[in-house]
Each structure stands twice: as structure tokens, then as C-alpha cells.
Write a structure and sequence with these properties.
The complex is a heterodimer of chains A (185) and B (310). With 185 residues, chain A is mainly alpha-helical. Chain A has helices spanning 2-28, 57-63, 66-70, 81-84, 98-101, 109-116, 128-143, 149-152, 157-162; strands spanning 40-43, 53-56. Helix content of chain A is 44%, strand content 4%. Chain B has helices at residues 2-32, 56-64, 124-128, 154-158, 194-198, 209-222, 269-293, 295-309; strands at 42-47, 98-102, 111-115, 134-136, 142-144, 165-166, 176-177, 204-208, 242-245. In chain B, helix 1 packs antiparallel against helix 7. The chains are: A mainly alpha (185), B alpha+beta (310).
């Protein structure tokens, strides 16, 4: 009898404790902050015509909120009211990596299939390359940051070949001569 | 007497038949030419708010289509200042796509617009071609067969977007040069064209044309004030596979806003339907009139001859 009462008491205590932990958890374990992320991130998943981008995450944490780049997946949560309709929680998403949501090949069969789903709010989600550039360049244009291609990544040999530049420049090409009006007689 | 009446009756019947045939032919022609776009045609939406003028699409096109080398590297941005007879750069036999820069008052940065063949649902180049050198494929591409082309260049005049260009540099192998949506090398296999794949800003979005229209309308709806509330190419020239979204009125970025909202073909259907009638019925009809009008003279002539002989 006595033992039975004790077990019940212990169960209740454990129960309350568990509930307490569950309730307190979001407050006790804050979402990931910018300082938790690596200081410098090498973005090289798409490098072919251009070399990898050395992204100074630390410097950007000082200038922007998490949501500016990570939407609703980490840190402060989203500020965009149309995103908040579904993603108003501040919990960490399972992954905060760009490439987990933005496909490297957005126009393959899978991507085209997704765009057929007109019910899907994110049917118009940019691919990985688009997501990087749209995020970076749009902001850099606004704050007057670097926007030139080679400001962020240097062109590779393959890139020079593709763009007919550097070692592969057209014969007899003089930089800066192109603006002349060849139509004026 | 009986013979004469029956002949008159025959002519009357013939005239009535001609009129009936003409009327019927016209209505048939109008009904028969209504063509809905291929349901699974692919398309591209060009978002001018995204384009930064990096010319990656031009470089990719040049390599993919094995076009001749350009005089300037593709990372030379001075080309945006080029003017030929006061006009910005345009597509020609050495480049199927070009990007041009537009300084629009009220915009804090210049706008760039890529141009190429818009791949009309009902292409004017195709309908104007009398040897059927053009084909609109079910995938949406307007492709061209140089083997049957006679080099008449009617397509160049027919195109409302001035896209087909002529290979003037070759005297013996005339050829029309224009964007083919990378049909042979990519689109046929369901892959996006080279320019789309190369675009870093995803200013070019590729998918089924119907889905691209949805994407375009969603962008307009979700970003109030960002775009002009119209997709250029949804209805222009009867609808095109390549379409544009713009933050400024389309004529500010060099797009022709006077292009009719229906296929160019509709303007010539009536005329073209008359051509076979003119060529087949009119000669018979007027020969008949002539014979009828001169019949008395001929009878008189014959009678005179008879009299003289007598």
C-alpha cells in the first residue's frame, strides 16, 4: 500500500517535471543564433565557370537579421507577413542550409512537376543558384555592396573560355572600344 | 429554243454555285483556322526586376548554338552603349540573343532586357512561309529547316518582333538565323535552354507555358506595386512561349506595345482564303461572261459567212 502510494507520488512528480521541462523548453533552449554558425562558409556547390565563394558569415550576422537570408528556418523567425501566415513559429527548422530547400537543378523533371501543383504556395521557389544570387545581389544593390560577378568569385579557366575573356579574349580586342557608335557615318 | 434555255439555265446555275461556294468557303476558312496552343508547350518567363545584365545568357547561347565568336568578350559591359543607326544591339546571324540596357526615369538602377525569338503560339513566320520551312513543335519551339528554305525572307517581314535574321555573309548558302529554343540539343529531351540554365539570377524561369503564366500572375499578386500588372506575351501576337514581367511599362524597355493581341494570321486569313477562289473560279467565270457577251457577234459572223458562201 505504502509502496503503491510512493509510486503514484513519484509518477506525479515526474509527470509535472516532464510537463515543466516541455513548457520551459523553448525558453530554456533558444533557437540557433548567428554566433553558432561557422564564421566563414565556403560556397562551392555550383562552382564551374566561377570559383567558390568565401562567404564571411560572421560579418553578415553583424549587418543583417537571420530572417533576411534564412526566411523562417532559424534565429529570429520571419518578418514577412505572407510567410508568417504559415511559418510564424520561432523554432528551428530541421535544416537551415540553403541547398535543402533550393534545388541545384530547378528545371529538371521533379522541378517541373512541382510547378504543375498550382495549390502549392512555393511553386515559384528559385533554384539554388537563383536563391544565392537573388538574395545577395538584391541586398547588395540596396546597401551599395559589391555587385560585380568577380567581386565575389573569380572566374575559372572554363569561365574565361565561356565568356571569351582573359586568355580567351577575341583577337585584336581592345577593352573599352565597344561603346563607339559604329552606325554613325 | 430548248437548247438555248438549257444553256441559260446552266449559266444561271453556275453563277449561283459560285456565289454559294464563295460564301461557304469564307465561313469555313474562318472556322478552320482557330488553333489553340499546344497544351504541353514549354515557356520561359523573363523577369526584368531580376536581370542584372551579366550577359551569361549570351555567352551560353553562343557556345550551345556554336555561333561565331563575337568581337567583344561576354564580360565587356561597354556593349550596352553600342548604337547602330541609333538603335540598341539586336539579334543577328551571329547571335540569337542579346541583352540591352534601359535607363528608365524613376528607377534607381538601370533595367536590362534579354531578347530572342518569342516562339509564338501561332507564328507569323511559319504562316508566311510558302515552303513550310518553319515548324511549331508540340514542345513550344519554332524551328526552321534550311534545306527547304528558298531565301525569300518573307518571314523577316512577317515577324512582329523582327526576330528572323538573314545570313547575308554567305552568298551561296542563304539561311535564316534565329533562336530555336535549343530544340535539338535540349528542349526535345525536356531540358531548359542553355540561356536559362546559365542565368545566375533566375531572371529566366522555365516550365510549361501554362505554369509560367501562373508563376507570373502569382509574382504580380504577391508583390503589389513591383510589377506592371500584365504579362507581355500572354496575349501579344496571339500568345508567345517567351513572356516578360516588367516593373515599368513595356514600351520603356523596348517592347512593342502595339503588337496585336491576336495571331498575325487573323489579319490575312480573309485575304488568303480569296486567293484560291480568284485563281480557280474567276478565270472560268469571266471566260463564261466573255463568251456570253460575244455570242451574238459570233453568231452574226457565222451567219454572214454562211451568206457569203451562199
Amino acid at each position: 500500500m505504502q509502496t503503491g502510494k510512493r509510486i503514484t507520488q513519484t509518477a506525479w512528480t515526474l509527470g509535472f517535471l516532464g510537463l515543466g521541462i516541455t513548457l520551459l523548453a523553448p525558453a530554456n533552449v533558444p533557437a540557433m543564433s548567428g554566433e553558432d554558425a561557422p564564421e566563414v562558409i565556403e560556397i562551392d556547390s555550383l562552382s564551374k565557370l566561377y570559383g567558390p565563394v568565401t562567404f564571411d558569415h560572421g560579418a553578415h550576422v553583424a549587418m543583417a537579421t537571420c530572417a533576411d537570408c534564412h526566411h523562417h528556418t532559424t534565429g529570429t523567425g520571419t518578418a514577412d507577413p505572407s510567410c508568417a501566415r504559415c511559418h510564424d513559429g520561432k523554432e528551428e527548422a530541421e535544416s537551415v542550409s540553403c541547398s535543402d530547400c533550393h534545388a541545384a537543378e530547378p528545371f529538371n523533371d521533379e522541378g517541373l512537376k512541382r510547378m504543375e501543383n498550382h495549390e502549392l504556395f512555393h511553386m515559384d521557389k528559385p533554384g539554388l543558384k537563383g536563391a544565392y544570387h537573388l538574395n545577395c545581389i538584391t541586398c547588395h544593390q540596396e546597401i551599395g555592396g559589391a555587385t560585380g560577378c568577380q567581386d565575389c568569385h573569380t572566374m575559372t579557366e572554363a569561365g574565361e573560355k565561356r565568356f571569351n575573356t582573359g586568355k580567351h579574349a577575341p583577337e585584336g580586342y581592345t577593352p573599352g572600344a565597344a561603346h563607339q557608335d559604329s552606325g554613325k557615318h | 429554243m430548248n437548247k438555248q434555255l438549257s444553256r441559260r439555265g446552266f449559266i444561271k446555275g453556275g453563277l449561283a454555285g459560285t456565289v454559294a461556294a464563295t460564301v461557304l468557303k469564307d465561313t469555313n476558312a474562318d472556322a478552320g483556322h482557330h488553333f489553340e496552343a499546344y497544351p504541353n508547350a514549354m515557356g520561359v518567363i523573363v523577369d526584368l526586376t531580376r536581370c542584372v545584365g551579366c550577359r551569361s545568357c549570351e555567352a551560353a547561347c553562343n557556345k550551345e548554338q556554336e555561333l561565331p565568336a563575337q568581337p567583344e568578350p561576354f564580360d565587356d559591359f561597354n556593349v550596352f552603349d553600342q548604337r547602330l543607326h541609333g538603335q540598341r544591339r539586336r539579334t543577328d546571324e551571329t547571335r540569337y540573343t542579346v541583352v540591352n540596357r534601359y535607363e528608365v526615369p524613376g528607377q534607381d538602377h538601370p533595367l536590362f532586357r534579354k531578347q530572342q525569338c518569342n516562339h509564338c503560339n501561332e507564328p507569323a513566320c511559319l504562316t508566311s512561309c510558302f515552303v513550310n520551312a518553319y515548324t511549331k513543335t508540340p514542345e513550344g519551339a519554332v524551328i526552321y529547316n534550311s534545306k527547304v528554305c528558298v531565301g525569300c525572307r518573307t518571314c523577316m517581314i512577317a515577324c512582329p518582333f523582327y526576330v528572323p535574321t538573314f545570313k547575308y555573309s554567305s552568298a551561296f548558302k542563304p539561311k535564316i538565323m534565329k533562336c530555336v529554343f535549343c530544340y535539338d540539343t535540349r528542349l526535345k529531351e525536356g531540358k531548359p535552354p542553355a540561356c536559362v540554365e546559365a542565368c545566375p539570377q533566375e531572371a529566366l524561369t522555365f516550365g510549361k507555358r501554362d505554369d509560367m503564366l501562373d508563376v507570373g500572375h502569382q509574382r504580380i499578386r504577391m508583390n503589389p506595386g513591383k510589377y506592371v500588372e500584365h504579362i507581355y506575351g500572354e496575349h501579344e501576337a496571339g500568345g508567345t512561349s517567351w513572356m516578360y514581367l516588367s516593373p515599368v511599362p513595356f514600351d520603356k524597355v523596348g517592347l512593342d506595345t502595339d503588337v496585336p493581341q491576336e495571331p498575325i494570321l487573323n489579319y490575312v486569313t480573309g485575304f488568303l482564303a480569296i486567293v484560291p477562289m480568284v485563281l480557280t473560279i474567276w478565270p472560268a467565270l469571266f471566260t463564261g461572261f466573255h463568251l456570253l457577251a460575244t455570242r451574238k457577234d459570233r453568231i452574226e459572223e457565222l451567219e454572214n459567212d454562211d451568206k457569203q458562201e451562199a
